[in-house]
């Protein structure tokens, strides 16, 4: 189980410990090692899904700084996260991880695939119900602002979870 102390230890060891092959980036396997050292209850599937949020180029070479920022947010908001009261920064990472094609819209299958990492017995019907609750504009996908709103965090409709690095059209409004 994760603890703030384990998270801090991962932050303190930094890129040198995370980057086993010395290429200056963090591969998926290296990321799995880092997160598993913090919380061995997380499945490799969940960690792999989460890694997508950091691997901008989809080339298995994530930069350390965004991972470090995620770890800092996890540590700083540990109690809230345990209660599923996610802060904006964590929601952003989760959304980036779910949005496989980076188009700014999470589809039902993307939602299911992400949650199967938490729980392999994820119920498709329950995920569809959750998606209907999130899908405020009823277009069959979840935009970032809808995802945040579902968890009680208000953001502008134009907010792009991918900071302009994805294929989302909303980043033009920022």
UniProtKB/TrEMBL annotation:
It comes from the Eukaryota. Coiled coil: none annotated. Residues 6-41, 86-121 form the EF-hand domain. This is EF hand family protein. SUPFAM superfamilies: EF-hand (SSF47473). The keyword ATP-binding does not apply. GO terms for molecular function: calcium ion binding. It comes from Trichomonas vaginalis (strain ATCC PRA-98 / G3). Keywords: Calcium. InterPro entries: EF-hand-dom_pair, EF_Hand_1_Ca_BS, EF_hand_dom. The lineage of its organism: Eukaryota, Metamonada, Parabasalia, Trichomonadida, Trichomonadidae.
